[in-house]
Structures are given as C-alpha cells and as structure tokens.
Request: fold
Amino acid sequence: MSRTVKRKSPSPAAVGGSPAAVGGLASRVLEAARTKGTFTVADIGDALNVQAHKDLVPIRRVVFALKKRNEIKRVCRGTYKYQGRDKRRTLMDKIWHLVRSHRHFSTDDIERLSGAARNTVTEYLRCLAEYGYLTKSGRSRWRLVKDPGPKTPVNTAKCKRLKAIREKRTKQ
Reply:
C-alpha cells in the first residue's frame, strides 16, 4: 500500500515574505523580473549569478509566489512576463462595484458593505445621479439606470461636493 503525499504550494512567507518588503532573494528576483520584462527562471538565475541547477529551486518558488500574487504572468511554458502589482481599489471603486452588482440598493447597504462613511457614500451616490448613472427611488433608495462598465466613472471622482467633504474632514 503506497501513501500519496500532497505537495503544498509555497507561501510568500516560505519564500521570503513579501517581495517588496524583504531585502533577500525575493526582492532580487522581483528586481530582475522588472529589468528583464519577459524571462525564464534560468534568465533570473543568470541575472543573480546562480551557477548550480539545484540553486534555481528557491528562485522557482519565488516566481511561483509572484505569479500567485499576479505580479507576473505566464506567457508560455517556462516563460513569464512582469506585469507589476495591481492598483489598490479606492473607496470610490468599491462603491461603484457594489452599485453595479446590486442595481437597486439603499445608502445603508452600500455604507455597510463598502466600509465608507455615510457622508462619503451619500455624496458619491449624488454625484453618480448628477451624471445620470443613478436615480433615487425613495428616501434612501437608489437604482442604477446607466451602466458604462466596470471602470469607475472618471468624472464622478472629481465631484466638488465630495471633495469639499473630504477637505472638511482633513481640517478637523
């Protein structure tokens, strides 16, 4: 009777933690990937002056972790391309995503799900309504009327009233 051993994929901590935060192998691999653009593990090994084939194993683990974090993309077997880190989503992005997914919602729903302050949510929803994306259907109920797609509408982020609220908060 043979035993099957499941292999675990290496965690970022196992290969040196966050590549950006650690000054070890992971950050050197990341820097080499940035420089090369499109690369193989052997290319990274050459850039780091790795001589032995067995020394490429930790580099493979780092490449796997970076792929898992979407910092690099596999082009074809054994070849990868550096694509950088995704931008962090802003509150406006979160609110817009929730508006699109719910279609008909209350201000309380969006406030609770996004984690944003009520005033921020209300003002952003008003901005969206001014640009014709939403209509109000009740006291604090809203409905999505025009859906331009997943990208947060650009003009709404610059809404004067929302900016005034933020400035007021920072002064306090």
Remarks:
- The CA atoms of residues 19 and 27 lie 5 Å apart.
